[in-house]
Amino acid sequence: MEKVDYKKKFKELYLPKTKPAKVCVPKIQYIIIDGKGNPNYEEGEYSKAVGILYALSYRIKMSKMGSRDIDGYFDYVVPPLEGLCVQCMHIGEFDNEPETVSKIDNFIKENGLQNDIGIGRKHHEIYLSDPRKCNRTKMKTVLRIPIKKI
Question: Where in this chain does the record put each GyrI-like small molecule binding domain (predicted)?
Answer without folding.
Answer: 82-148
